[in-house]
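Researcher: Next sequence.
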Amino acid sequence: MNKSGLLFLFFAIMVLVVFTWLNSTWLSYRDFDFSRNVKRIDYYLSDFTLLNTYADGTMRYRLKGSHLVHQQVTGASEIFSPELKARGINNSIITLNAKTALQNKKNSSIQLTGDVSVIKKGSKPLDSFKLLTNDLIYNPIEKVLSTDKELIFTSNMGKIKGVGFSTHLDKQELRIKQNVHTEFIPAK
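Model: Next structure:
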């Protein structure tokens, strides 16, 4: 071999060594390490609607939102601008709206945060109500709504303010925990 061939072979081996070293350094760099502790997005939905049903096909709840981000490692889903519709007594529909919602795993409680409203439009005016609060937890399996934050409950019968409540969607019962103030509007 001539000198130029040996020189070329030497530089080619040096370039391969440098590229191998850079590649191993880059992959071991902490920000590029894709280990199990890094949040990985499994899927991302935009302008979506999801329907959760019972075994007989009837609606348990319907979730609609502008964005949904599901993380593969934790199994959590974060929903932006959620609108959740659930069945209440006599198959009435109750609508929950918020700025964001978080569900840590499938069929677990859904935590709604930021300007949460719960609205029920009944067939009769007395069956309708509106509830406003900052945070709310909805358990879709047990059909329970609850919060420890301030709330305002408004219906045709009046307005109730308090702190913290719990209610079961299959029962006509609302338990307000503390600081209850009521404004009653008598029937005309």
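Model: The radius of gyration is 27 Å. The first strand starts at residue 41 and ends at 53.
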